[in-house]
Predict the 3D structure of the following.
Amino acid sequence: MRRLYAFTTPKRREPIRDYELRMLRGISEKFELGDIIEYARWDDEDIRYIEAVFEGGKVKMRYKEGKEGIAEIKTRRGEPLRFR
């Protein structure tokens, strides 16, 4: 299943790696993706792109520091349905 998630990004007060991992952990908690297995990042002027692989899916994200971001979340199929 694919989902889009739009969000605002906080001002960065920490190293870039910690900043990005904090955002990825937040997305992981919101969409129940589990732990981060690996991630890669690259820049295109002032826009940063991230591709991350989690235990329960993948995330493609782009953002501007202190402004906004958007993430495409792909969850793995075959997981049992959970009712809340």
Q: What stands out?
A: Strands lie at 2-8, 36-44, 47-54, 57-63, 68-75. Residues 16-31 form the longest helix (16 residues). Residues 50 and 57 are 14 Å apart (CA to CA). The longest strand covers residues 36-44.
